[in-house]
Amino acid sequence: MPHRRRVRQPALRLRGAAARSRRAHRRLRGYLLYLRQEGRGIGLYAKLDAYALQDTGLDTYEANVALGHGEDERSYLVAAQMLRALGTSRIALLSNNPDKSSQLRRFGVTVAELVPTGVHLSGSNARYLVTKVRRASHTLDLPL
Q1: Is 40 assigned a catalytic role?
Q2: Would residue 59 show up in a list of annotated catalytic residues for this protein?
């Protein structure tokens, strides 16, 4: 008769992870909001066209403008409305985008703290990240 392995250990690990998650949720409360704003609000298909322009040397903002759009057409009004619907009017915002916090404030959300997030700098994204810092004042800690 073949030896049967017990399945208890993974089940215990899963229960333990779930318990840790519940404890963390009690301690750290927050929301992750998803807004359909591909390509800085210009839409997915236009963003694909913008990528083609970026391949010719334009930066991400220049490409949007070349297509007849604004540099960044995103609005965070829906995010403010979602937070209100959740009963939240004061937040710590995890973002490197100062426009996001500015708009949320304008729409009545108190941004008590702006917490910058880390980024992975690589050869393939360095130009893009530097452009975000220089053109849109993103708070990225980059070796410029």
Answers
A1: no
A2: no
Per DSSP, the three-state class of 45 is: helix
Q: What is the pLDDT of residues 104-138, one digit of tens each?
A: 999 999 999 999 988 888 998 888 899 899 989 89
3-state secondary structure of 92: strand
Please pick, among 74, 84, 106, 141, the residue that the annotation labels catalytic: 74
The most distant pair of C-alpha atoms in the chain lies apart, rounded to whole Å, by 72
Q: Which of 4, 13, 40, 72 is catalytic?
A: 72
Q: Is the distance from CB of 131 to CB of 60 less than 8 angstroms?
A: yes
- pLDDT tens digits along 28-54: 678 888 888 777 778 888 889 999 999
Give the number of other CB atoms < 10 A from CB of residue 100. Answer: 17
**Chain length of the chain:** 144
Ramachandran angles phi, psi of 131, nearest 5°: -60, -40
Q: Whole-angstrom Cα distance, residue 107 to residue 98?
A: 14
Per the CB < 8 A criterion, the answer to whether 40 and 64 are in contact is yes
